[in-house]
Amino acid sequence: MGGIIFVTLANIFAVIPAQAVRNTIDIVAETVSLYPFFEKSKTETVFNTLFTKSVVYYGLLIVCMAIIRGIFMFLMRQTIIVMSRHIEYDQKNQIYAHYQTLPLSFYKKNNTGDLMARISEDVGKVRMYFGPAIMYGLNMITMTIICISFMFSIHPKLTLWALFPLPILSITIYYVNALIEKKSSEIQKSLSKISTFVQEAFSGIRVIKAYSREKDSEKRFSYAADEYFEKNLNLLKVNSIFSPSVMALVGLSIIIVVFIGGHEVINGNITAGNIIEFIMYISMLTWPFTSLGWVSSIIQRAEASQKRINEFLETKTDLISTHNYKNEISGSISFKNISLTYPESNTKALKNVSFEVNKNTSVSILGHTGSGKSTIANLMCRLYDPNNGEILIDNENIKSYDITSLRKQIGYVPQDVFLFSDTIKNNISFGSNFNDIEIENASKNADLHQNIIDFKDGYQTILGERGISISGGQKQRLSIARAIIKNPKILILDDCLSAVDTQTENTILQNLQGIMQNKTTIIISHRISSAKLADQIIVLDNGEIAEQGTHDELCSKNGIYAQMYIKSLTK
Ligand SMILES: Nc1ncnc2c1ncn2[C@@H]1O[C@H](COP(=O)(O)OP(=O)(O)OP(=O)(O)O)[C@@H](O)[C@H]1O
Ligand SMILES: [Mg+2]
Asked: CB–CB of 490/329 below 8 Å?
């Protein structure tokens, strides 16, 4: 509302100078025509001062109006543009918060680029609607009303003549803008191609160098750069029609005013000042009419963007808890006839899997690659829901638990470790408040402490892109520390010792023995050495349980496990 008032006031103060100019011109014209009568007469000086005074008066008036107009324009921007920034801020937060609630399957379906585009570019486009589009739209409406009504009051016919090129201007701008938009989005695409290429080339620099593909990489870059260059030139061409076409149409309007207005002045219907006033009105209307085309394309884009944003906002997570139980769990797990087909790939990852794990005991899951081991971990953390069967935790369906509360009580070391660009300390405590002793203990148990204190900055060492990189085994151990520091009731270790040597593996497993005492532990592994310590062993084969039992039981069976065991001994 404040915005509308400021826009109107700013425009009124923009229009008044036109009238002041008209008066000045008329005074000048009158003076010039009357001057011969006063020349050399006594009243000449009186006449001169009167003339100068009125010109100075109007001059000052114009300056004052410009200042006042400036102030109102400032206030207008302050209200409308600031509001649009607030809306942008809220919308970004809302989308980010919503992203966080969406399940893993959502992230598998949509690529990161798309997620990023909707939270940045699309929000930006919607902001353009709430900010500039509304501001210029209001500006256009009030300016048009004010100018045209003044123009009509002076000379209706001349007004119609003067205005007729302006709608053509709007339409031209609209189309030129659409063209510019199209070219710009092509440029944007080719730019993002370049950045993806460069990013990949830098992160994969080791592979590129090792395979001596530098020249090839260079060629591919210059190819992408050529494309970008050409598209930019294309845009430049379109851009260069832009201002000449505006100028031509405005010029046409002015010529019409001068021509028809001139006739009217001769006929004595209007004054010379009126013509100047008209020309000023036309130049004031140029920008609003130009912005009409621009504003309508902003509105269209904002509409498309809001649609894309809504599409994600309306996607709701399908992982819903039925009772929101937040109680502490004791950790007994039971899988009953679980089957899961991943919706994204249609892979039947688990087929009719049933097993039980009592609280405070351990189970290890063994099997070839792709046999469905990680899938069991995914189901335990409720990253997916099974298609058939039910998972019980403490004899309660996993769906009854509040997801956040459940996940807080599970320590999950995923197969692919992810570390954030942050200190080691923060990577271990990961958002929770743990004191230094707790952090140290966790890393001691993960056999990482010694490595950390060898770094110059110790626990404050920054990891990731801007920091140092640590070895694969160190990463895995850091990930273990992150899980055990939570002291979870259920601990899931997904192949987390694959990158450490057998000796380190033994040390960690030894340390884990103590930690595992009051926890239910699921150890997923390829190695017998990790598996055999568990109270029970499950061998998965192609999504089905092939064998199940203790180490001794399975050894006596002479099945897959026994063969693996014998192989591991002879290694
Ligand atoms: N998110 C996913 N979307 C679609 N398919 C998946 C997904 N995760 C796994 N799969 C498929 O499900 C099957 C089981 O995968 P899973 O990750 O459970 O195997 P795994 O036993 O952990 O193997 P590995 O030992 O190599 O880690 C595989 O065929 C895999 O391609
Ligand atoms: Mg796996």
From this structure: yes
Distance 242 CA to ligand 1 centre (A): 55
Is any ligand 1 atom within 6 A of the Cβ of residue 369? yes
Helix or strand run (H / E) with residue 205: helix 205-210
Q: Atom 7 of ligand 1 has which residue's CA nearest to it? A: 342
* Cα–Cα nearest to 444, from 494, 498, 480: 480
Output the CA 349–ligand 1 centroid distance in Å: 7
* pLDDT for 54 beyond 90: no
3-state helix vs strand vs coil in the chain, percent to 5: 65, 10, 20
What is the token pair recorded at 403? 């997801």
**Any atom of ligand 1 within 6 Å of the Cβ of 109:** no
CATH superfamily of domain region 2-313: ABC transporter type 1, transmembrane domain (1.20.1560.10)
What is the pLDDT, as a whole number, of residue 35?
A: 67
What does DSSP say about strands 388-393 and 396-397: parallel, antiparallel, or unpaired?
antiparallel
- Taking CA atoms only, the protein residue closest to ligand 1 atom 6 is 342
Tokens 């938009």 locate to: 181
Sheet holding 396-397, edge to edge: 348-357, 333-341, 388-393, 396-397
333-570 and 2-313 share a CATH fold: no
CA of 230 to the centre of ligand 1 (A): 43
CA-closest residue to ligand 1 atom 16: 372
CB 336, CB 354: distance < 8 Å: yes
CA of 380 to the centre of ligand 1 (A): 15
Q: Is 342 in the pocket of ligand 1 (CB under 6 A)?
A: yes
Q: Which CATH architecture fits 333-570?
A: 3-Layer(aba) Sandwich (3.40)
H or E stretch covering 391: strand 388-393
pLDDT tens, residue by residue, 248-266: 888 888 898 889 888 888 8
Atom 30, ligand 1: which residue's CA is nearest?
A: 370
Amino acid present at 118: R
- Convert the pLDDT of each residue in 359-391 to its tens digit: 999 999 998 889 999 999 999 999 999 999 999
Which runs of consecutive H residues, i.e. helices, occur in 102-164? 104-109, 112-117, 123-128, 134-154, 156-163
- Is 43 a residue whose pLDDT tops 80? no
* Residue to substitute in 364, 375, 412 for testing ligand 1 pocket (most ligand atoms within 8 angstroms of CB): 375
CB-CB contact of 208 with 285 (8 Å)? no
The domain limits of the chain are 2-313, 333-570
User: Do 431 and 407 form a contact (C-beta atoms < 8 A)?
Assistant: no
Q: What is the mean pLDDT of residues 226-231?
A: 91
Cβ contact 334:392 at 8 Å:
yes
Q: Ligand 1 pocket test: which of 104, 373, 538 has the largest number of ligand atoms within 8 Å of its C-beta?
A: 373
Atom number of ligand 1 nearest to Cα 524: 22
